[in-house]
Amino acid sequence: GENVEQHPSTLSVQEGDSAVIKCTYSDSASNYFPWYKQELGKRPQLIIDIRSNVGEKKDQRIAVTLNKTAKHFSLHITETQPEDSAVYFCAASRLAGAQKLVFGQGTRLTINP
Amino acid sequence: SQTIHQWPATLVQPVGSPLSLECTVEGTSNPNLYWYRQAAGRGLQLLFYSVGIGQISSEVPQNLSASRPQDRQFILSSKKLLLSDSGFYLCAWSRPDTQYFGPGTRLTVL
Asked: Which strands make up the sheet holding A4-7, listed edge to edge?
């Protein structure tokens, strides 16, 4: 089955700097890669997703890149703000059938003012 | 627009007691439904998923069970809770691909 590895487990950056979180996956048939943000005590919220037919997707300060050959994808947050502090999860699945998401272990991002 | 509800929001139960958590989705039909558990400070573990009424697939063998009596209703149950069942239980739906999570139920087993 699919296995998703996420790094780093914790990340601390200065406000205004960029943050990058990386994930690798094992199933070459996976073709859907969402990223979720989870604030303390809250539900995970989808922030961006990418399908395997594109290599990069941007939404304001957030971008995701996908390298299908190497089987890894990354989340990039630019001009970080204190409200970006949260736990971020990557995930992978196939866009067919039950579409079970396999999640990475999470990255705790702290933005220092 | 679609909304997903879970109740109760919090629950404190003694070891050995039964459990019933409910999840309902509004504004869509025939969604895929999922139950996840998140232990404190940990990642998301898929427990069950369902692609239709009465169709339940289990991901992790344990003392929990799930049922889908109606198209937009998903129930998580246990006959006897263990201490290790404590955690944050999240229901999610998708149709066709993006998963959206409910507000969750925080369960503490004492």
From this structure: A4-7, A19-25, A72-77, A62-67, A56-59
Q: Which two tokens stand for residue B35?
A: 């139950």
Measured in residues, chain B has a length of 110
- Chain centre distance of CA B108: 15
Q: Which residue of A has its CA nearest to B42?
A: A105
Instruction: Return the number of CB contacts < 8 Å for A and B.
Output: 47
Q: pLDDT per residue over B65-110, tens digit each?
A: 999 999 999 999 999 999 999 999 999 999 777 899 999 999 999 9
String of DSSP letters for B63-87 = SEEEEEEETTEEEEEESS--GGG-E
Say if residue B61's pLDDT is above 70. no
Q: What is the pLDDT of residues A22-69, one digit of tens each?
A: 999 999 999 999 999 999 999 999 999 999 888 999 999 999 999 999
Residues B2, B5, A62, A83, Cα dihedral to 10°: 140
**Cα–Cα–Cα angle for A88, A82, A47, nearest 5°?**
35
Do residue A103 and residue B96 have CB atoms under 8 angstroms apart?
no
Question: Does a cis peptide bond (omega within 30 degrees of 0) precede residue A34?
Answer: no
